[in-house]
Amino acid sequence: MTYQPFDIEGADRPARWLVTCDHATNTVPPFVNGGNLGLPDSDMGRHIAYDVGAAGLTRRLAERLDAPAILSNFSRLVIDPNRGEDDPTLLMKLYDGTIIPGNRHADVEEREHRLNRCYRPYHTALAELAARRADTVIISVHSFTKQLNGYAPRPWHVGLLYASDTRLARPLADLLGQENDLCIGENEPYGGHLPGDAIARHAIAYERPNILIELRNDLIEDAADQVAWADRLAPFIEKAGEIAGV
What we know:
This protein is α/β, with parallel strands linked by helices. Helices cover 30% and strands 16% of the residues.
């Protein structure tokens, strides 16, 4: 079976929303170090390799919004599609204290090979989906860990990340903030966006309304929880869109 660096679901769904998942899988393509980065399964199964639970959440959320979804099919350790091509963290040799053996000797030629086989095809497909309508709104789905080594537990259930365009972010934060059982972080656990990241490239550059939604990954570890969270979030996203007029 021919390797495909991305997966598109519901390409013909009519809604203006486009749901993206930059870190959907921990796949290492066969042309990258023989399909193995030299890490144990325990490391490939955690956040350093992909966003745990984000793929299932993305698929269900796209269904609920009647929108297309695009998901990457390569680990962020292969090359990170949520970084600009000139970002020094695009191809990591050390991540969260873990040495990546398969990246240790990756040179400029190898970086370019991974860009051409994984990163650029993903972004080309994302750009084509985003351009299918003049009024596309981008929802980027990610997940984050509950606690980093040596740090206090993160209290947020949901993080909403945005830059200067708050058309969708502001009403969505206000709506979710009314839920008494939720702790919502604005630009938490990370701040805003990085220059050249996926939102900057496909939303900000075209003045498309957007929001990056981070779910704490212990809340979406299994399929049932992913469905439940997607079903919970979808009405809030739709209502926020109505309020924002997008």
